[in-house]
Amino acid sequence: MTFTQVTTTCPYCSTGCSLNLMVEDGKVIGTAPYYRSPVNEGRVCPKGTYCHQFIGNPDRLKKPLIRKGDIFYEADWEAALNLIAKQFSSYKPEELAVLTSARCSNEDNYLAMKFARGVLKTRHIDHCARLCHSATMVGLNLAFGCNAMTNSIPDISESDCILCLGSNTLEQHPLVGRQIIKARSRGAHVISADPRFTPTAVQSDLFIQFYSGSDVLLLNSIMGEIIRNGWHDQSFISERTNQFEAVKKVVLQRRYEPEISGGLCGVTPDLIRKTAEWIGTAKKCTILYAMGITQQTTGVDNVKSIANLMMLTGNIGRPGTGVNALRGQNNVQGACDAGCLPNFFPGYSAITDGTAHRRISKLWGFPDGICEPREGYDINTMFEQLRSSSPHIRSMYLIGENPVVSEPNPTIIIDGLKKVDFLVVQDIFFTETCQYADVVLPAACWAEKDGTQTNTERRVQRIRKAVDPPGEAKPDYEIITALARKMGYVEQFDYNDAKEIFEEMCSAIPQYRGMTWENVSRPEGIHWPCTESAMLGTQILYTDHFAHPDGKGVFFPVEWKEPADLPDKKFPFRLTTGRLIWHWQSGTMTRRCKNLNDEVNEGYLEMNPEDAKILKISSNDLIKVTFRKGSLVCKVRVLWDIKKGTAFIPLHFIERVSANVELNSSEPLPYMSEYKVAAISIKKYQEEKE
Fold first, then answer.
1. Most distant CA atoms of the chain, gap in Å
2. Inter-residue contact 623 to 617 (CB < 8 Å)
3. Terminal CA-to-CA distance of the chain, rounded, Å?
4. Percent of the chain, pLDDT > 70?
5. How many CB atoms lie within 10 A of CB 428?
6. Helices 410-419 and 379-386: angle between axes, nearest 10 degrees
7. Which residue of 121, 175, 255, 608 is surrounded by the most CB atoms within 10 Å?
8. Is the Cα dihedral 359, 360, 365, 366 positive or negative?
9. Are 524 and 37 in contact (CB under 8 A)?
């Protein structure tokens, strides 16, 4: 018997907790604490504790599959890659699209992006950041000149006041939540604003149970109170920002006074005043937000308002302060950094920037050039385009993405996938999306390959191979490399291991340029920006200047807009969605972990007892939830934790409930679907004559 332990990083949320995988005779049998990481200091949540259980699941893909008619047949790699290379080569660049994954490593994503733009010459590449934090990318870039979390995770514990807005931190990012508890034990005020009385709300000193979609209204009201009481930081505003007067004019309007805004938010005026006092008088205040803020049609406005509040109070550039966007998946930050976006090269250089285009083209050395310098389709536009009468896209390569479950409006996704002439899906399991593929490629999971990933605080850390992949499955970067070489680009894809890919990636990403394989392999990893002159990385951004050319932050006046889909007589409830501590995203991995699935194994809807009493509904009843454009069936849980008039559905289940169906998408920049506010009606399922 041989026994080893391998230190790696958790594959679920963006916190980036380190842990040890326990390996016996070539199989991962459990996890153990790794105490040297400053992110989690040896603690992990339930998902991290049982993350090993899906690795050896018998459902894992083990051989390439090729469709013939309605049946998939096992094939060898040579046949599968030859078929894909031949098919991809038959399409024009404009007819090809690539989706990468925030579950893949930095190296996987970088190579997928290079393959798309260099081999296929297509400009159509995107990934799931479009669905979670594209509003952060746009909003923070406009306000600060950069789109990332400003401070480190351990830094949160130094705050005097913490506002959790659109983030159930203790359940969705539990080890970030630990820093909240540490701050509170040191005397910090903790404020939680949420339609549900969540585990985060339990640990707060002030709970604001407001209506989904009223975030800007609440934030503007808080800012107005801070200005009226003279709690704003005038010296910071004068020296380090622009356009303050425009915001001041907006937030001091009568509509944002607590007596008026409180009624629209569903909270008392005193709660707004107390929140303003705590934030305005704190020496060090930070805001933690997540997809409750960004997954709205007004997501960019929400993010701008958060940035306004922190600049107003001078809470930028110091320990215990900052705008701290808690990203979703484990490597959503890294996938964005690597350029898996339709409008950016690696490091957020605009795809339309001629200098950046020439720099990347020279670095890669493709003899026939790379994609043209025009923005491509994002994931939403790809599938909308596929619905048109004469779609441009004819072939797609999906790497680690399961859009049938994760995208809003799955009917649109399925219709689009059916229209694709040639679809390749690369994943670790045969997902709901695989059934529409022409070729399915078996990929290694995170425990079966080396590489790096970048967590929500810009910390680049190692993942390490613990065991071999099952059957003939291969790491994503090996599959992409082999396919590129099949298509004639041997010199451009001449890699021996993940380290070599990492080194090229760092030369392509200015923020990573000072990183080495050795320094990211340390227990603490490295925060970007890490340049030749700052090789230890940068934990806190904007200590003396912002990232705009003039070094100043920009206030943006934002007026509150009502949600796109408000309740009415026919659809009287507001539906919101979110994650559970036991599961992750579409559940592809967590629902194959016995201990996690034993906790919750089916979808449900939460509703307030007063609402349930009126509808004569009890817990565990089967109900029908009707949207303006569709319906679903699930069980109900009656809880006082949810605000009256509001309902909640977790997003991890598809059998009988898909909470991402028929949602509005109305924001032009960055085209965000309305996951957090949808008008619905609720009835007992038995009452319907189906």
1. 73
2. yes
3. 59
4. 94
5. 26
6. 60
7. 175
8. negative
9. yes
